[in-house]
């Protein structure tokens, strides 16, 4: 006898919103890209406001336009569902509300897409808005944003961001070093002090910036503060920014 199975997410007593969210969980647990897409699409059919389903679809598509469509539709759906008043009332601790997190992930992914497609000012604006909504930056967006500001030569905003997030990670310490070199290239003492502090936190970074070691094909999935994976994660995004500044590379070479 053929076994009768419920469609994933089709559990007794659930409304369409709950069923859609359940399908998203099933999609995230699936090893099949086809199944993940199918479940995400079905979730959107049941609940057009299911932001998490748009997140799943955006990650599955390789087409830039398809990804853009998923991001923009998901973002628009969340805004339509919750309205302007919700944003106004919850700005400042947005990530603390569970229902906002799919929206925040969509916006972060869309920001990366904008940067990748050359819409750089729009990407920066997207991340600045996310930090306005959630100044604690639980998503770690400040690292990409800082790289983008330095790459675009927006040094004043880069300095402001560093002051707001004064932390001892390699990301911030080497970004601070680069900012000082860009803004005060003749201040050798300040540069040397910043270099010592950054290099003490993570001595692996300079090896990759100066090509003493080559970057692997893929960015590591995890890292710890001060370890080599942290250096790799930083250099995957920041190395090009350093290399585009001949003065910065020359000064860094002299410091080693």
Written account of the structure:
This protein is mostly helical and 256 residues long. The protein has two domains: 1-137, Alpha Horseshoe (Serine Threonine Protein Phosphatase 5, Tetratricopeptide repeat); 153-256, no CATH class. 69% of the residues lie in helices and 0% in strands. It has helices at 16-29, 33-46, 51-60, 64-90, 101-116, 120-133, 141-151, 155-164, 170-183, 188-201, 204-209, 228-243, 246-255. It is elongated and about 70 Å long. It starts with 15 loop residues before the first helix and ends with a helix. Mean pLDDT is 94; it is low at 1-7. TPR repeats lie at residues 104-137.
Give, in order, the helices and strands: HHHHHHHHHHHHH
Distance between the terminal alpha carbons, to the nearest Å?
Answer: 74 Å
Instruction: Outline the biggest β-sheet.
Output: none
* Named CATH architecture of the largest domain: Alpha Horseshoe
Q: What's the shape?
A: elongated
Task: Please give a quick description of this structure.
It holds the Pfam family TPR_8. This protein has 256 residues and is mostly helical.
Keywords:
256 residues; mainly alpha; Serine Threonine Protein Phosphatase 5, Tetratricopeptide repeat; 0% strand; elongated; disordered N terminus; TPR_rpt; TPR repeat; TPR-like_helical_dom_sf
């Amino acid at each position: 006898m053929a076994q009768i199975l419920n469609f994933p997410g089709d559990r007794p007593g659930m409304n369409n919103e709950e069923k859609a969210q359940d399908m998203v969980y099933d999609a995230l647990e699936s090893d099949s890209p086809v199944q993940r897409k199918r479940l995400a699409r079905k979730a959107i059919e049941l609940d057009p406001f299911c932001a998490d389903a748009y997140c799943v679809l955006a990650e599955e598509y390789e087409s830039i336009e398809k990804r853009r469509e998923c991001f923009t539709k998901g973002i628009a759906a969340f805004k339509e569902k919750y309205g302007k008043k919700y944003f106004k009332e919850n700005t400042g601790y947005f990530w603390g509300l569970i229902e906002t997190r799919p929206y925040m992930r969509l916006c972060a992914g869309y920001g990366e897409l904008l940067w990748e497609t050359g819409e750089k000012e729009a990407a920066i604006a997207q991340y600045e808005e996310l930090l306005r909504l959630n100044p604690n930056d639980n998503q770690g967006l400040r690292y990409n944003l800082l790289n983008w500001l330095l790459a675009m030569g927006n040094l004043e905003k880069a300095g402001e961001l560093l002051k707001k997030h004064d932390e001892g990670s390699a990301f911030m310490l080497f970004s601070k070093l680069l900012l000082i070199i860009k803004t005060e290239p003749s201040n050798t003492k300040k540069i040397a002090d910043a270099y010592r502090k950054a290099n003490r936190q993570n001595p692996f970074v300079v090896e990759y910036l100066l090509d003493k070691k080559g970057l692997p094909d893929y960015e590591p999935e995890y890292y710890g503060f001060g370890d080599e994976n942290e250096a790799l994660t930083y250099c995957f995004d920041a190395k090009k920014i350093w290399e585009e500044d001949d003065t910065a590379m020359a000064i860094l070479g002299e410091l080693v």
